[in-house]
Amino acid sequence: MKQLITNVQQGQDLTAEEMTLAATQLFDERTPLEDIEAFLIALSQKGETATELAALAQVMQGQALSLNETTQNYLDNCGTGGDGIGSFNISTTAAFVLAAGDVYVAKHGNRKISSLAGSADTLEELGIHADFTTAELKELLENERLAFIFAPKVHPKLKRIGQVRQKIGKPTIFNLVGPLANPVVLTTQFTGINRPDFVTDYAQVMHLLGRERGVVVCGAGGLDEASLAGENRLAILEHGQVREVTITPEALGLEEQPLSAIKGGNGKENAQIVCDVLQNKQGAYLDTVLLNAGIAFFAYGSVSTIEEGIHKARKIIASGAAFEKLQAVVAYSKEHVKEPA
């Protein structure tokens, strides 16, 4: 491990084989925490490559607990996080809209690492716990078309690394790899990253991992979601090819808004925003969800354009179906509460 750390500190990109070796050692209980910290910091300072990211994702998937899910077209709309902007939980909110629109959403998520409230923190405030078994997650996927997969539950070896990440306090390769390490076999993916220079590389990683379709966005202002604040950079994976496009809210019929208009708070505050949006409260929060859900519907193939996706999302929220989906998942959660050990 120490030689690999030295190589990375000297600015060397790792081969797939080297990164597979390093990733295996990251999850080894015998690897000192200070070595994990040094490796993650060195990678971040050097800049992670698509090859390194794909190798880490494959090792993580290989060590994850399986849901034994039925064959289906599953989508994850989890972003990488780490943008430091402090927005509300956009992709979590959009997930209810997508599931209400007949998309099978297997959403990877975590607690706060570098934000005020991660998806798990907000979901718990809504009444959705993070302690489902893999069998229950499978049942949710099949019955509600929506499962929030809490990363530490399906990646038990992440615990030590989580301690290191919190100590570092800044985004690492684990922010980038989170959406790619979903234990569910995904055919489609929509994710956001806060690195405009990496959107095409990230889409290429999706291709390496077997995604049939995918969209990667870097939002205006560095948001790891599509943003109302200006021009958004997208990389679209279709038929094994990646193309880049840019979109603006105005071109899609939405009003431009500053990033300050979508600020979030703690889990309780974000949970209230989720409820407001799903109950069709007008404003920047709602429009941001419409934009991101619209792109996800496009990625999934439910619609042929992003504009159609936004229209579909608007109808679903206005009908009450998205809020009903939230209520259904909350009800399931309350029926499957674990007794304290």
UniProtKB/TrEMBL annotation:
The keyword Flavoprotein does not apply. It catalyses: N-(5-phospho-beta-D-ribosyl)anthranilate + diphosphate = 5-phospho-alpha-D-ribose 1-diphosphate + anthranilate. Binds 2 magnesium ions per monomer. It is an enzyme of class 2 (transferase). Residues 72-322 form the Glycosyl transferase family domain. SUPFAM superfamilies: Nucleoside phosphorylase/phosphoribosyltransferase catalytic domain, Nucleoside phosphorylase/phosphoribosyltransferase N-terminal domain. Mg(2+) 2 binds at D224, E225. Residues 2-61 form the Glycosyl transferase family 3 N-terminal domain. Anthranilate 1 binds at G79, N110. Keywords: Amino-acid biosynthesis, Aromatic amino acid biosynthesis, Glycosyltransferase, Magnesium, Metal-binding, Transferase, Tryptophan biosynthesis. Its cofactor is Mg(2+). Its EC number is 2.4.2.18. GO terms for biological process: L-tryptophan biosynthetic process. Pfam families: Glycos_trans_3N (PF02885), Glycos_transf_3 (PF00591). Mg(2+) 1 binds at S91, E225. Anthranilate 2 binds at R165. 5-phospho-alpha-D-ribose 1-diphosphate binds at residues 79, 82-83, 87, 89-92, 107-115, 119. Belongs to the anthranilate phosphoribosyltransferase family. Homodimer. PANTHER family: ANTHRANILATE PHOSPHORIBOSYLTRANSFERASE. This is Anthranilate phosphoribosyltransferase. It comes from Candidatus Kurthia intestinigallinarum. The gene is trpD.
